[in-house]
Design a protein that fits this description.
The chain is built from 19 helices and 14 strands. The chain is of the alpha/beta class. A hairpin with a 2-residue loop joins strand 10 and strand 11.
Length: 461
């Protein structure tokens, strides 16, 4: 009788694990998935609910060592138990990590029966690795004519594989990558151009990662897709308690983070992007109505190289403060930008325009003068000059003054989207892809008032 009761309890546990993802995790990895680790239960329930819903995208942000990759792997196992026709692709930052992830899932499914130990086939007897499928990165299940699983990375391949579920697991390796806009953009390009092209009708996206930068893949997904389910866990809660004392207690947290760069602490443990804390500009002043301008001026920084941006800013001055009127920020050729700048100078009734003459700026200024004559604009005086000061030093040293003295229109982010994107993501330390917007904005602040220079200007009052 006792044996029968034990067998009935065992079968009940197995059936519960088939139906409930968290119960599956508890049964197969009881050392980590415990009932009192409530955030794990919550995350597992969220993932199961997402899988069973019509939702398309979920983003999960979680501190280190709290089970991100482990839970993603367990989810793959459980999903194959629900439907062994699913085709799942996982992407990690390199082939070693993606291969380790894939091997762990494959080995769990292929685990052999052992007396007294519950294995995968006890729970899902109809899901088995296809005979002869020894590759760790790509394998099939029994009854399938094609691969069910592929693990890849931005430097790997996804050719010839289509997926119904895509899991992206921690693409950013370290702080150097988090600071590097080029690497972040390459990861987004890889996601858009390679990974999404492998998805099949009705696919789902699961993004599991520690937040590093605002424009990392998680940030990109949250900003560019509608109806994204976002599950966000911080190591230290609002009341000062820890997310899970059993995994990371306050004493260990304080010891680990005591001498750690605070940007990394905020990003890794609190899911606050590193470039938000490291951002050069924390915010800008705005205006709804222009004051009566004393002067209307322009500052233009021409593109030094082919990938650089031309930035030209019209602004009004009032009581030593600067009110942005219009901005041209583009990578278009000079054949396009010269007449565009001339038209903007004319439209805004600019009296004095200062153009950096470095790397072709003088020729640009002369061509703009020619365009102004054709427009019968006699009120704009154009001056070119050589900027000999260090660009980065100028940008950094003037950043506070720029924020305190320059005003943008209230809708400036919508009006100047490319300019706003670069300004708001420029970091104080680390690698920035471009600095043309910041350089030109700094030039606006540094630009002398017309009455302190010998060139002509159009005084409004």
């Amino acid at each position: 009788m006792n044996n029968l009761k034990e067998e009935l309890k065992k079968q009940a546990r197995l059936e519960l694990a088939r139906r409930d993802f968290f119960e599956y995790c508890k049964l197969t990895a009881s050392d980590f998935y415990k009932e009192d680790r409530t955030f794990l239960k919550s995350m597992c329930n969220e993932l199961q609910n997402f899988y069973e819903s019509d939702e398309r995208v979920v983003v999960i942000n979680l501190p280190p060592r709290h089970g991100k990759s482990r839970t993603a792997g367990k989810l793959v196992e459980w999903i194959f138990g629900q439907n062994n026709k699913e085709k799942i692709m996982t992407g990690s930052y390199n082939e070693i990590l993606s291969g380790t992830f894939a091997k762990s899932v494959r080995d769990e499914i292929a685990s052999e029966k052992t007396e007294g130990i519950t294995v995968y086939t006890d729970i899902f007897p109809n899901t088995k690795i296809k005979y002869g499928e020894s590759s760790a990165n790509k394998w099939a299940l029994e009854g399938s004519s094609q691969a069910n699983y592929l693990a890849t990375s931005p430097k790997g391949t996804a050719t010839g594989f289509g997926c119904t579920i895509m899991i992206i697991d921690d693409l950013i390796k370290n702080v150097e990558e988090a600071y590097n806009e080029n690497i972040l953009q390459k990861q987004i390009d890889w996601f858009n151009n390679t990974m999404l092209s492998r998805t099949e009708t009705g696919f789902k996206l699961i993004i599991i990662m520690t937040r590093w930068a605002e424009n990392d893949l998680a940030g990109y997904i949250l900003a560019n897709y509608d109806n994204v389910r976002h599950i966000n866990y911080k190591a230290v809660q609002e009341d000062g308690s820890m997310l899970c004392e059993d995994i990371l207690n306050k004493e260990d947290y304080n010891f680990k983070t005591k001498n750690m760069n605070k940007d990394i602490v905020y990003a890794n443990y609190q899911q606050e992007p590193i470039d938000v804390k490291n951002r050069l500009y924390s915010g800008f002043k705005t205006y709804e109505k222009l004051p009566p301008a004393h002067y209307i001026m322009n500052y233009t920084d021409t593109a030094d190289e082919g990938s650089d941006y031309l930035c030209s800013i019209d602004y009004a001055m009032y009581n030593n403060e600067y009110y942005i009127l219009d901005i041209i920020y583009t990578q278009e050729s000079m054949e396009t930008t010269e007449p565009a700048v001339a038209n903007m100078l004319t439209k805004d009734h600019v009296g004095y325009a200062n153009v950096e003459s470095n790397n072709g700026g003088r020729g640009f200024a002369r061509n703009v003068q020619r365009e102004l004559k054709e427009l019968k604009n006699t009120h704009t005086k154009v001056n070119w000059f050589h900027q000999s000061e260090n660009k980065q030093a100028r940008i950094l040293s003037n950043s506070t003054a720029v924020m305190n003295n320059i005003y943008f229109p209230v809708n400036w982010k919508d009006k100047f989207p490319d300019f706003a994107k670069h300004i708001l993501h420029y970091v104080r330390t680390g690698k920035n892809e471009h600095d043309d917007a910041e350089d030109c904005l700094t030039g606006v602040y540094e630009n002398p008032k017309p009455n302190t220079i010998s060139f002509g200007y159009n005084k409004i009052i």
